[in-house]
Amino acid sequence: MARPVIAIVGRPNVGKSTIFNRVIGDRLAIVEDKPGVTRDRIYGTGEWSGRAFSIVDTGGIEIDGEDEIMKSVRMQAELAIEEADVIIFMVDAKAGMTHADDEVAQMLFRSHKPVVVAVNKVDNFNRMDDVYEFYGLGFGTPVAISGSHGTGIGDLLDAAIEKLPEQVDEVYDEDVIRVALIGRPNVGKSSLVNALLGEERVIVSDIAGTTRDAIDTPFERDGQKYVLIDTAGMRKRGKVYETTEKYSVMRSMKAIERADVVLILINGEEGIIDQDKHIAGYAHEAGKASVFVVNKWDVVEKDEKTMQLFTEDLRDNFLFMHYAPIVYLSAKTKQRLHKLLPVVNHVSEQHALRIQTHVLNDVISDAVAINPPPTDKGKRLRINYATQVATKPPTIVIFVNDPEIMHFSYERYLENKIRAAFNFDGTPVRLFTRRKS
Ligand code: GDP
Ligand code: GDP
User: Fold this and answer.
1) Angle 274-285/245-258 helices, nearest 10 degrees?
2) How far is CA 361 from CA 164, 356, 408, 411, 419, in A?
3) pLDDT band, residue 185 (cuts 50/70/90)
4) Whose CA is nearest to atom 6 of ligand 2?
5) With a 6 A CB cut-off, is 267 part of the ligand 2 pocket?
6) Residue 266 beta carbon below 6 angstroms from any ligand 2 atom
7) pLDDT digit string, tens, across residues 14-51
8) Which of 8, 9, 18 to mutate to test the pocket of ligand 1 (most atoms within 8 A of CB)?
9) Distance between CA 89 and CA 22 in Å, rounded?
């Protein structure tokens, strides 16, 4: 299920990142004020009143080549209008209403997106006069908040959640593999989409009234149904947000959320860069199956060692995703393209694999017999049993006498043994230890 997106929009210095950091903090009420707020973190997730959502600080989206502040703010608002389900429009009580606020307000107003006005820096709730002025923006009752004191944020989230659209259930059947293609601009995402669709007849979705079918592309191959997630985003080329790195991260996050299998495209010609790692990390954290696709392999000068060296480099750079298979291909010449879908099918199967409890426990017992659990502070870890509690990704709970003394390295040892027995190719495996009650 994809999480709805809340975007924070507003002039610089109104307190967007301060509020953003408070919202993504684990426990809203006790989050410390963070001086020198980092500009890196622009995307996070939160939960309020039982609704999970993702939240974006559009102020952190750098618009390349744009120095003029007002233009940046306008473009950030444009991104929010395009991507968000609800927009928090933040203004500054101390500064009062400015011309820039007015201009952004008009853009938001025309978009017909749900908007909540947050009046920040209301450090003293006795001085509500500063807030009433913002009624004039035309978005209903403004919510008074203080990023410094952490006040009003609950009310703000209440208002935002109330305006979220009803949760839409995924429109695709269980047997459809949802595939997202992610990677930096120009890596070849649109080319790969076209190559995959090839001559195949694109099956037109008959589900009316959804926007999903407008942005996703379903197709079928060898009896297996797939849907390529958010392919429309790849077609909207040349638009301003395509040129901003951080924006593509935002778009990728949404696509990853909705996917079963994530194809992480790497430019074989240029090699691996940091941005590739950030995006791949999201797929891992989101618990999706992943495949590395090294594209543009046609233009790489090769000898018999090239693929091996690239593989080693990739593994070094993505230690945390050792499980993801690598496919080398060319979207342009379609060289080795036929190798891709079988790998997608395989990791999708592994992602959904369910291991019977007794089989799992045989493996755990063997692992424990070969390499007994460590002692910690004179206490030995005792493993009672393990059971798989979820799939997509496979999630295993290990019941022990004392979870505190389960060491990270022993957990990794168990994961390796579990993988040695069941593969789980292409998928993260989540292990949790619980006290046996
Ligand atoms: P952004 O540019 O909109 O992301 O704004 P920041 O979150 O970076 O905040 C800009 C400045 O306003 C920082 O110096 C914050 O400490 C300050 N600030 C944020 N919230 C409040 C608040 O509620 N009251 C006061 N007085 N200052 C705040
Ligand atoms: P996107 O921004 O990730 O969607 O990338 P595109 O699919 O638009 O491709 C960017 C550029 O790379 C285009 O000029 C493509 O023709 C080129 N390209 C894509 N795939 C390949 C490939 O496998 N080999 C070569 N040589 N060029 C490619």
Assistant:
1) 30
2) 44, 9, 20, 15, 13
3) confident
4) 188
5) no
6) no
7) 999 999 988 887 433 222 333 333 334 677 778 888 88
8) 18
9) 16
